[in-house]
Design a protein that fits this description.
The chain is of the alpha/beta class. The protein is built from 29 helices and 28 strands. α24 packs antiparallel against α26 (804-827). GO terms for molecular function: transferase activity.
């Protein structure tokens, strides 16, 4: 009987533990797509999905901590518990079993207890086919179809290893632990596979492992695929989309006993390897399976019996094995291609592919380093004249000397560094720093330079040793009941510009001292980068992405979040989640000051050598910081780096029109000018700039709050200062990538581009060297027609003349649309074809027409801005966006376009006026 039924609540708050894992991430996205608020709790910061769903809130933490469990469960209606220490046979083997049992049982007891306390309505547990007795699965000569009740065949139960025993024990705990109104659901997964899961780290399941090896075989031309065991083991495999559908049906049912979620289609591992080879396009006639003995292989035969789940839920798999493998193969191939792009040279690429051609064992318990200290105590210790306490004191001194060797972690001499506390009254700032006498030796007895009076000394010391990886924070909080952020009993005197000269000079002194120290082997100097995010909307999904970015060990990163909406309801949540981290500084403007003012405040908070500006609604690539570090190492004299801001593929007429109109052209200029060492400018959605020079360059708040010209102005002034002192301009960094969503979720609105143009029109007056004269463009011609229409209307003109202005307006309007159609559909068709869009046919023609409207509206905004500023004499003047990088090409093309448009406008006007 089908027990499935509609969900009781339309908008339940769903928590997915392990929601950044394979099955969990798919389930989280499915519930989010259904309109439910979704929270993910995971020890991993991100899933394998590259396009992160910003609406899914992520809590990064360890579910073995009961306090963390209580915090994440607090508001949940439905909890799907998929978090586990698990993997394929490379992970679930005898050496790891005790560790896996301990971790997984602890996690489940914690999360289950938290759910009961929080009054959760539904609790789902991801069990495993490993609960079934191994005695039923010993023979590979025939398929073993396992029913749910087979767990209790041949008692007592003998699951597959401690992993299976923990799963079975947890099933029993859940069925007996649940109290009150919490409904429980249990599925036993049978070898779920698909894209966006582990595929190369030893935790992957066999389909991903074989697909990876088959792809490597194709790329290397060796046609050899490694198989653990003799290949006779038989399994069934269920595609991830089918598994997710089964979970959804289970949770919308009255079925509260364990059910199988798997496939009944059994196959040997050798045959699976052949299907994997077929999925990647490998020539099967040349395929050689290399069987490796001595590796974990699991039971001989197992597949799912779906009679019960089909009768109860009406569920069965829909996607065949070959189709599922083909889909998964494409994703793994894309991942391998990305890895190959990072390889430096053919040798590194060959080594990468060689490693991917083999599976590895995961050892969860690190290897032990066992050593002994031999401490001879001579007979003098027993002599009548000896002093036993003195002997013990010597031993204590020796023990202390062992502790002192921890300085080797940082690679610097003993005593170099700073240990600070955090003050609850002023989060994000290190306070009460502790330094060693070594510091006094380096600075001739001076704690801080003379420029400091009674403020800023604490962060100075912390930031100084941050550059050497030697700043630490004691894991406790203090509260300064007298000072802190409150008014002091004295006049606070800040040290002006201490993050420039004083900090740089102190850094040089430490470097000089280290160079003279014979115990120092070098290599501890860190690159320091601060990420500044001006934030109005305070969208936690995006902020979670930023604050989970990881840098390399040679780079120190801090995050500076400037909130420009003091009334945002999400500020409290942001602070609760991140304010305890000393690498996160959260500041709230008293009023809405605009993006430029917020970026300037971020610069004032920063003490790093470089700053990276990100918009608050971009999704950064996982390797963003690693790629930025590479760019800085390659071009250390640059004024900054222009990153790549991509947009999703355009799928609507409007989003396609945005690209055709050119308003997104400079967002990925780093790709278009990938080898350029002097990119004219970049958008502030993703741009890095040198900060450790006191150039006085800030974002000009005279530009509109919502943007328009301030990014160009900032880049040009920063570039001018750095180049005047022997440095370079802004360098293209095409691999420093973020993805920017379409504004307003792609909803149609032109006002943003109108506002941008009003602002960037001010560049004409500020940068005369980058300005050229031109004949009237569409907006200037439309302005002329409006003025002519008004003039003829208020004067005693014949009625035949009064319509000349409106007719000219119509002629200009139509001429611009026709000319843009000519450009996009014929003259520049090759250039237009590069736009990533799925729009075709009549919708493409509509996009061309709409792009003309967007362009004209933008040009109109620029004219309005000039008129509002009283810059009438700057009409017919154009700012050269490429700043000469392409020579006269851009201005000549713009002039040609305007000549053709005005000619077409005059011709159409002649027709309309009957001339």
């Amino acid at each position: 009987m089908d027990h499935s039924k509609p969900a009781t609540k339309s908008k339940c708050h769903v928590l997915v533990t392990g929601g950044n894992g394979f099955i969990g991430s798919h389930i989280a996205r499915r519930y989010f797509a259904m309109g439910h608020p979704v929270t993910v709790a995971d020890i991993a910061s991100r899933s394998h999905f590259r396009n992160v769903s910003p609406g899914i809130e992520t809590f990064e933490g360890d579910l073995r901590d009961p306090d963390f469990c209580a915090r994440v469960v607090r508001t949940a209606d439905i909890v799907l518990h998929l978090a586990a220490n698990m993997g394929g046979m490379g992970t679930i083997h005898e050496e790891n079993e005790a560790k896996i049992y301990q971790d997984n049982h602890t996690i489940t007891l914690n999360i289950l207890s938290a759910c009961v306390d929080a009054g959760v309505e539904k609790f789902f547990y991801a069990s495993s086919a490993c609960v079934y007795p191994t005695s039923l699965q010993d023979g590979a000569e025939s398929d073993v179809s396992l029913c749910e009740h087979d767990v209790w065949a041949n008692p007592p139960p003998r699951p597959q290893g401690l992993y299976g025993l923990e799963k079975l024990n947890t099933e029993l705990v859940i069925q007996n632990y649940a109290t009150g109104n919490m409904k429980t659901y249990i599925s036993r997964f049978h070898n779920i596979y698909g894209p966006y899961g582990s595929w190369k780290d030893g935790r992957e399941k066999v389909p991903a492992a074989l697909l990876r090896k088959a792809i490597v075989a194709k790329l290397t031309g060796k046609y050899e695929v490694e198989v653990w065991g003799d290949g006779s083991q038989r399994r069934s495999f269920c595609y991830i989309d089918d598994a997710v559908e089964g979970v959804l049906k289970l949770l919308d049912s009255d079925c509260h006993v364990p059910v199988n979620i798997g496939s009944e289609e059994a196959i040997s591992i050798d045959d699976l390897a052949r299907k994997a080879a077929e999925a990647v396009g490998l020539d099967l006639s040349r395929l050689e399976l290399q069987h490796v003995v001595g590796k974990p292989v699991g039971v001989a035969s197992r597949n799912s019996n779906n009679s019960f789940v089909e009768a109860e839920l009406g569920w069965k798999p829909r996607i065949g094995l070959q189709e599922g493998l083909t889909r998964t193969a494409q994703w793994i191939r894309d991942e391998i291609d990305r890895l190959q792009e990072t390889a430096q040279g053919e040798a590194e690429r060959a080594g990468l592919l060689e490693n991917l051609g083999e599976s590895s064992l995961v050892r969860l318990r690190p290897g032990k380093h066992i050593f002994a200290l031999l401490l001879p105590i001579t007979s003098r210790g027993h002599a009548s004249d000896a002093d036993p306490p003195a002997c013990l004191e010597s031993l204590r001194a020796f023990a202390r000397s062992l502790l002192a060797t921890t300085h080797e972690e940082t690679g610097v001499p003993l005593g170099l560094g700073c240990v600070a506390f955090t003050d609850t009254t002023f989060p994000g700032m290190p306070t009460f720093p502790v330094i060693h006498r070594t510091h006094m030796s380096i600075f001739d007895g001076q704690v801080v330079p003379d420029v400091f009076v009674n403020q800023d000394g604490d962060p100075f010391l912390y930031q100084l040793y941050r550059r050497f990886g030697c700043s630490r924070v004691v894991d406790c909080e203090i509260r300064n009941g007298v000072g802190g952020r409150d008014d002091a009993r004295y006049e606070k005197q800040h040290a002006m510009d201490w993050t420039f000269g004083p900090l740089t000079e102190a850094t040089c002194l430490v470097e000089s001292w280290l160079a003279k120290d014979s115990s120092y082997s070098g290599g501890c100097r860190k690159l320091t980068v601060d990420i500044i995010v001006p934030c109005y909307r305070v969208m936690m999904g995006y902020l979670d992405n930023f604050l989970s970015l990881k840098a390399s060990p040679s780079c120190s990163v801090m995050f500076i979040i400037i909130i420009d909406n003091p009334a945002s309801p999400n500020i409290r949540q942001l602070r609760e989640k991140y304010e305890h981290r000393l690498d996160v500084r959260i500041r709230v403007n008293k009023t809405n000051s605009g993006a430029s003012a917020s970026r300037n405040r971020g610069l004032a908070e920063s003490a790093a050598e470089w700053v990276l500006f990100l918009d608050d609604d971009v999704t950064p690539a996982r390797n963003l910081l690693l790629e930025l570090e590479k760019s800085i190492e390659t071009s250390p004299m640059a004024a900054g780096f222009v990153g790549n801001a991509k947009f999703p593929t355009a799928t609507t007429t409007f989003t396609t029109a945005l690209h055709l109109a050119g308003v997104t052209y400079f967002w990925d200029i780093a790709t278009k000018l990938a080898e350029c060492k002097d990119v004219p400018w970049g958008v502030t959605a993703n741009i890095a700039a040198r900060r450790d020079i006191n150039d006085g360059v800030l974002y000009d708040v005279g530009f509109p709050k919502t943007g328009g010209g301030e990014d160009i102005d900032f880049c040009r002034r920063k570039r001018e200062y750095v180049k005047s002192r022997g440095g370079d301009g802004f360098v293209a960094a095409p691999h420093v990538t973020v993805t920017h969503p379409y504004w307003n979720n792609g909803s149609r609105s032109y006002w943003r581009f109108y506002g941008w143009s009003k602002g960037d029109g001010a560049l004409v007056k500020r940068y005369p060297a980058l300005v050229y004269r031109d004949i009237p463009n569409s907006a200037e011609l439309l302005l002329f027609s409006v003025v002519a229409s008004v003039a003829t209307a208020v004067t005693a003109m014949p009625s035949s003349l009064r319509w000349l202005g409106p007719k000219f307006f119509a002629a200009v309007f139509v001429a611009n649309i026709l000319h843009d159609a000519y450009r996009h559909l014929w003259r520049d068709a090759e250039r237009t074809a590069a736009i990533q869009s799925t729009v075709t046919g009549s919708r493409w023609l509509a996009a061309v027409v709409e792009s003309s409207l967007i362009r004209m509206f933008s040009e109109w905004g620029r004219v309005v801005g000039l008129l509002e500023r009283g810059e009438f004499g700057l009409l017919f003047h154009r700012f050269e966006w490429f700043a000469g990088v392409h020579g006269d090409g851009p201005r000549n093309e713009e002039r040609r376009n305007n000549v053709q448009r005005i000619g077409l406008s005059v011709a159409l006007f002649a027709v309309l006026a009957g001339i």
